[in-house]
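Look at one such:
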Amino acid sequence: SLQLQAANFASTIHANEMVLVNYYAPWCVWCQRLSPVWEEFAAKLDTKPFADVVQTGKVDCTAPGSDQLCAQAGVRAYPTISLFRNGQTESHFFYNGERSVAAFEENATERYPVPETAPDTVVHAPSYAGKSRSMSYPLVSRSTVVVVPTKLTVM
């Protein structure tokens, strides 16, 4: 994974559709245990079809100048893993799942699935005036369609 610092953090986030960042402290035992897992995950991620737009990085929160990056990301404990999407440095998601290569891979693949065919059209939902109906609507990102069940009431 890429070592991120104040000088390259924003440019790395802006240049990729998704960046997973491991905030760590070298003295932290849990960070030391995570380090080989994180590097193995980064190597596996490089073999995925979306490797050109998905990046892994790490920030040493004890390094000079990196303390502000960690504070901006809301790091309160080590290690902290965050996911940045669509070049947005201002907002991110915290990863709270299992700390294993398989779990990291699954999470990245779920958040950046590779569709069998790219969507060409937008499907409009029919009008159900005055009826409450449970429906699913696609959320469209740059290259995928994810279906999220919702409850819709049209009046």
In short: Strands lie at 2-3, 18-24, 54-60, 80-85, 93-95, 132-140, 145-153. The helical segments are 9-15, 29-45, 67-72, 101-111.
